[in-house]
Amino acid sequence: MAAIYKNKVEEGIRMKQHHKVKVIRLLLVAFLFLTACTANDKKTATSSSSSSQTEEQHLLIAAAASLESVMEKQIIPAFEKEHPETTVEGNYDSSGKLQAQIEKGLEADIFFSAATKQMDALVSQKLIDKKSVVPLLQNQLVMIVPSASEVDWRDFSDLKKAEMIAVGDPASVPAGQYAEKGLKALGYWDYVKNHASFGTNVTEVLNWVAEGSAQAGLVYATDAASSDKVKVVAVLPEDTLNEPIIYPVALVEKSQEKAAAEEFLTFLESKEVAKYFEDTGFIMNK
Amino acid sequence: MKLFVDIQKKLRDHPLQVAFEIEATTLGILGASGCGKSMLLKCIAGIETPDSGRIQLGERVLFDQEKGINLPPQKRKVGLLFQQYALFPHLTVYKNLSCVTSDQGLILKLLHMFHLENVRNSYPRQLSGGQKQRVACARMLAFEPELLLLDEPFSALDTALKEELQLELHDHLADFKGNVLIVSHSLDELYRLCPTLAILTESDLIKGNTSDLFKQPQTVEAARLTGCKNIFSVKPLDAHSVQVDGWKIPLSVATEVPKDCRYIGIRAHDLVLDDTAINQLDVEYISSQQTPFEQNAWFNCQETNLWWKGSKQIEAARIKRFSLSPEAIMVLK
Amino acid sequence: MELSPIIISFQTAMLSIVLTFFSGTLIAYFVFRLKNHGLKILFNSLFTLPLVLPPTVFGFFLLDIFGVQQPIGKFLLDFFAVKVVFSWTATVIAAVAVSFPLMYRSAIAAFEQIEPDLFAAAQTLGFSEKKIFFKIALPLALNGLLAGGVLAFARGLGEFGATTMLAGNIAGKTRTLPLAIYSAVAAGDWSLAQNYVTVIVVICLLMLFLTELFSRNARRRQL
Lengths: 286, 333, 223
What we know:
The complex is a heterotrimer.
Chain A: H1 2-51, E1 57-64, H2 68-82, E2 86-93, H3 95-103, E3 110-112, H4 116-124, E4 134-139, E5 141-146, E6 165-168, H5 174-186, H6 189-194, E7 196-199, H7 202-210, E8 216-220, H8 221-226, E9 230-235, E10 245-251, H9 258-268, H10 271-280, E11 283-284
Parallel strand pairs in A: 1-2, 1-3, 6-7, 6-8
Antiparallel strand pairs in A: 3-10, 4-10, 4-11, 5-8, 5-9
Helix pairs in contact in A: 3-4
Chain B: E1 2-10, E2 15-23, E3 26-31, H1 37-45, E4 52-57, E5 60-64, E6 69-70, H2 73-76, E7 78-81, H3 93-98, H4 104-113, H5 129-142, E8 147-151, H6 159-175, E9 179-184, H7 187-193, E10 196-200, E11 205-209, H8 210-215, H9 220-225, E12 230-238, E13 241-244, E14 251-252, E15 263-266, E16 279-282, E17 284-290, E18 295-301, E19 304-310, E20 321-324, E21 329-332
Parallel strand pairs in B: 3-9, 3-10, 7-8, 8-9
Antiparallel strand pairs in B: 1-2, 1-4, 4-5, 5-6, 10-11, 12-13, 12-15, 13-14, 15-21, 16-20, 17-18, 18-19
Helix pairs in contact in B: 4-5
Chain C: H1 4-33, H2 37-52, H3 55-66, H4 71-80, H5 88-112, H6 116-124, H7 129-158, H8 161-167, H9 177-187, H10 190-220
């Protein structure tokens, strides 16, 4: 009798395990089925977009990091609204890195640099047609400190009060190059160089100051305006630089979407967009 | 030194409930697989904790759930021999012993006692099964425990070696002054090595003298565990006779038959071929099967299957009648 | 070629591997010996988490702790004049933080492959937990621990995202090899980048070679 009971219990346990296995198998099948379905959906979506290729266009804009906010939040949405058949994608980084990427074959349609150096380099390599270059914007270099800082900051000479200064890497970041030029003219570069943390893009520099890791830093006026965790102490005088800080924009020669890209460039020079730029702290270059 | 064990622990299928007391003896523990024999040893050694109860060795309380006593294994002085020996693979035989005790004299004595002198610098992976078992025993004794627990000590060895080692172990155990518990499912081992036996069934634990228990296992389950092949449900007729359900003739039983007796057991070897006994059973041959040293055969006796074990010299197909002595019938609950 | 990134990276990697190896092994052993399964799962998830986070995100967390505007960072600055951010110490912290989970998981796996009965046997033979660790667990897990150490070392040496967040990119102080390589690439100085890459590869090969030697010895003494 005990044996019969034992058998029944064993059977019950076996059935439970069997049931568990069944449920697991069912879940696996359901999961595979769902992923197959969604994969199919993606396929049909892309196939439909490629079939109507004549209508839909896609632009890739390689732009300096300091342009990201105004481009993504205002300019690109405005353009896409007026040109619904075109999707615009932005790739933001230091101008030096973008230059390197375009040289290595990045399929950008438009290059929007934070300095003329990178643009000129690409022009000299015939990757950009000199005729399409538009010196669109002007920016200013400013000295910033954390908003919460209680130290008495007045001008660039106070950089000597900072133990750590955040600057863009002059080797690759235009903002860094301007900082070097300007500070050399003012006589503070030697100090700054020996107390600097070199950012590989301006956003990194901004964040370092915003977090208080560096006591001071040099960024564009537009960057400073975008964060309330930093405050501007002084503006780099224009005569310390050979030329104003120009943000040129141009068509990339290898672009497959020249028509759409030209439309975008025209759009950038419009009055509507000028307002967006000025709100962010840029100065339109006349 | 007396060992007192009374513990309860919930296992996966059913609860383990064990209570017994032994003094200066080797106790065998027989039970079905999964009934908790190994768990019992682990609880006594301290590497598992029972849900409730008490374990006491001599004057020392090892475990008492109510009083909140639970000695760590390190302090219990209880030796445990693992089924797979658990030798430290990165240490030589000598180091396996010396990491337990610094008493050089004891180590040398143990090496000698277990014939391990010429392998003292070998590693466990270089040893044979029998040698590993001896090292495990020696290491266990190196700690000078007060109680020995052997978990299926011969299950990992081949048959040829087993008997030899069983005899050796018997000699070693004779020297040991404390109690020994041996868990096994081999009837031969338990019969050879343990004068006292505890049969662990799902419902309870039956303890007694080994040979007595084999003669009278007391319960159906115990009878099965001790290898009884023929168990029949019966109706008691009077104090010394029973009637197997479905049989026409009664059986004469030597032990007293209680009024509520429902089963009897007849060992396959107890069916003999002379005409002397009072109980005579007419049978019809069904089939037989040979094993190396004896023969199994099945017969039909009044619509019941009868399992017989006997000499290979006999022609099983020719057997028409068995004789069964009243002493051989086991009265079971 | 500017040599400071090599020296900084070497110092950072050496210190962080020592810290990671010991903390990873000890903490993993502690969790391994826990009897409470719930706690085990909790600790395992906690200590593996940094592995599945992108390093920059992890850098954020570190900044949350050590940033001068955060409670702990501020406390350290005000009371001990210790600023963790933008210091060489930060490179070590970042390296340890990202390499710890690798060491931890390798160590747990190394301990788990030891025959469980050995621990029980040692206990019944009177071994204290300390003795069990040093005489049984450590020697038998050594191979796995060394393998984990190599992984952790490589991860710490190559650490970038969390490092820039916490330690900045200060030439001569916190500019490790990965940061120097990235800066060189950004500046278009491919030959400099290649030189630095060669140095990292050589260091890693050296470590692998040494570890292979060690583990072969350890294996010989084992099963």
